[in-house]
Design goal:
Keywords: FAD, Flavoprotein, Isomerase. By secondary structure, this protein is an alpha/beta fold. About 35% of the residues lie in helices and about 20% in strands. Among the domains are: about 150 residues, Rossmann fold (3-Layer(aba) Sandwich); about 70 residues, no CATH class.
Length: about 375
């Protein structure tokens, strides 16, 4: 008998497994893949270079709680990610900043002048409903078409005017020279990789791991009291209301017999080619090697579910599943797939930690109720 059956060994499942096991609970984790770590899984390729099997995962957070929690299981390598966009045979820093604009237009603006420049280009929108609205309202249509429109179409197979405002709002515009892709307080990579971090996290006598196992096949044979489900919520309910739409990615890995392939960690290709970006892993890991490995990303409609598609009709469909999920006793739905949200890694960790606190509070309240009931029986 297990106290908890956890479906999925990614961030959500692993964090909850560790927290619950640390309180004396017997935990079983199932994952249909043959490895732990979910989409953050990394490994050494044939050339001996540490690569990310499911595309680049760069850790960043403003949450001290999340950072300090993960620090129990890994040392960190300080790393601040930088991205360039390839446009018209030149490279420009993104998010768009002071350097981007001065380089693109051959100007020497300062920050206050750049604010006025953006204001002169912007098309004011009273309501920011779509991803197009967000960008055009901020920096105008010319820069929107150069940097955002076609990249978004490739990524989502939808025009930005068809997507929720949250998509392009993830990439801000700056009026200074800060060329870091993220500005979070904590920006680091696990020193020995994500997989090593997960191995340390799950190394507990109360945790049992079964890989290459579909929970639908195994669950009927397993005795457990409660479940944590981190897979697709529509799958859990056998697609009762239909499938929730996702975008997936095909990855093409290459190893080159040279020390570096490109001038920064990631280069985006907004307008050219069918791939969206190329990432070179040695920038992320800091590994020294005479060869280098890269990955091309080709967005696709088919494949593993990676990105929930943020459109009103999709959210309406998810709400139906959310109501079903709320009605389930002793089942907790956690993570990007289980809650159909476009979460970053730190947000999934935060959600898992919050769920653990909720579980602990519920257990404490149940104990008080039982003690109160037993006390009443003793007096009668």
């Amino acid at each position: 008998m297990y106290d908890y059956l956890i479906v999925g060994a990614g961030f959500a499942g692993s964090v909850l497994a560790e927290r619950l096991a640390s309180e004396g609970n017997k935990v079983l984790i199932l994952d249909k893949r043959n490895h732990i770590g979910g989409n953050a899984f990394d490994y050494y390729d044939e050339a001996g270079i540490l690569i990310h099997k499911y595309g680049p995962h760069i850790f960043h957070t403003n949450s001290k709680e999340v950072y300090e929690y993960l620090s129990r299981f890994t040392q960190w390598r300080h790393y601040q990610h930088r991205v360039l966009a390839s446009l018209d045979g030149q490279y420009f820093p993104i998010p768009i900043n002071l350097t981007t604009i001065n380089h693109m237009y051959g100007m020497t603006l300062d920050s206050s002048q750049l604010e006025a420049f953006f204001a002169s280009k912007a098309e004011a929108k009273n309501i920011l409903e779509t991803s197009e609205d967000v960008v055009v309202n901020s920096i105008g249509r010319e820069l929107y078409e150069k940097f955002f429109k076609n990249y978004t179409r490739k990524q989502w197979d939808l025009d930005p005017s068809e997507l929720n405002a949250s998509v392009t709002a993830r990439v801000p515009t700056r009026t200074n020279k800060d060329d870091r892709y993220f500005t979070d307080t904590y920006q680091s990579m696990p020193l020995h990789g994500y997989t090593k971090m997960f191995e340390t996290m799950l190394n507990h006598p109360n945790i049992t791991i079964m890989l290459g196992t579909d929970y639908r096949d195994a669950a009927p044979e397993i005795q457990f009291k409660k479940m944590v489900f981190t897979g697709p919520v529509d799958e859990y309910f056998n697609y009762r209301f239909g499938k929730l739409p996702y975008r997936s990615i095909e990855f093409r890995f290459e190893t080159h017999d040279q020390e570096t392939f490109q001038q920064t960690g990631t280069i985006n290709y907004p307008n050219d080619y069918s791939f969206t970006r190329i990432t070179e892993f040695k920038y992320l890991s800091g590994q020294k090697h005479h060869k280098t490995s890269i990955v091309y990303e080709f967005p696709t409609a088919d494949g593993d579910p990676y990105y929930p598609i943020p459109r009103p009709d999709n959210m309406a469909l998810y709400r139906q599943y959310e109501e079903l999920a709320k009605s389930q006793r002793n089942v907790y739905f956690v993570g990007r797939l289980a809650t159909y949200k476009y979460y970053n890694m730190d947000q999934v960790v935060a959600q898992a930690l919050a769920t653990y606190k909720k579980i602990k509070k519920e257990a404490s309240e149940n104990t008080r109720v039982l003690e109160s009931a037993n006390g009443s029986l003793g007096r009668n």
